[in-house]
Amino acid sequence: MKTKLPLLCLSILLYNAIPAVGYAASETVRTNQAGSGIETSNAIAPALSLSALHKLQWQPINTYDTQTITLSNTSQQLNEGDIRGTVAAFALPANQGSLEITLNSLIKDRQVYSPNVLVLDEQLQPAAFYPSHYFRYQQPGIMSADRLQGVLKLTPALGQQQIYLLVYTTLADLKSSTQMVDPAKAYAQGVGNAVPTIPDPIARHTETGTLTLKVKSERDAGNILIGQASSVPASKPVIIGSTSTQASQVKTAPMAIPQSTAPTVKPVLNDTERYFNDAIKRAISNGNIDKALKLLNEAERLGSPTARETFIKLIKGRVN
């Protein structure tokens, strides 16, 4: 076991030489939609002007709240680029740790609003992008209806008070549809009977619909880091549910981003320092070395002077 320590130390050095953009794996996730090409046509984050974003009314959302939002013809509209029709704009707390956000778009009368989500930091700078094919069809349950559902796990960078979610649909989404599961098939599957060979219904995509948004805070780090610590250059938005080829196509809105050739990261606060060290300890004690490395990387990016020492000490304790 001791012979593996040099290799482990080498992997730590190599890992920390790679700049971190976010914590999410770029797993391709698709809504079960009729038609083709939706993954390609919606693979690029929209380039929105700051003036358009400032005109939106951002609805504040608290953690552990579940909001139901009805998008109608009287809701706020955004018709810019491929974005078409009604949108929902939310302001989330960024000072309560990582956030887990569950977004549902309910299917009613075989119609559904196909959501895309653009996540912006406190400065309204794009930070993450969830295309419509990330939100997958879910069959109805005892307490739930047919719906498109996606879960967003975000970690706001320190020093921010709010981050923002823009939910919208596109021209390409409106030309597509979602294949549902016939209730008779769902019932037969549930009770173990033979599944009847009947066609499944199709839900048409529309410019209006009903959304539910549930937000809860977590102690563990989320998948995507939203915003930047002070003096750290901004990065392009991360596409969720896309291939690496698609990720290279992301375009951000034109805006002035101050660059620094030698960024100075301020030391983190004592509570933040303790949070990262405790999280590293828990990850290593659970045998999750990969997560501990990511926490170490993020802690040092925010200016932690003790995270590396904590990590190495615990790793040596496991090896000895």
TrEMBL record:
Q: Name one Pfam family in it.
A: MalM
Please, which domain of life does this record's source organism belong to?
A: Bacteria
Q: Which GO terms describe its biological process?
A: carbohydrate transport
**Keywords associated with the record:** Signal
Which InterPro entries does the record associate with it? MalM
Please provide, in alphabetical order, the Gene Ontology terms of the cellular component aspect for this entry.
Answer: periplasmic space
Q: Where would one find the signal peptide in this protein?
A: 1-24
Protein name as catalogued: Maltose operon protein MalM
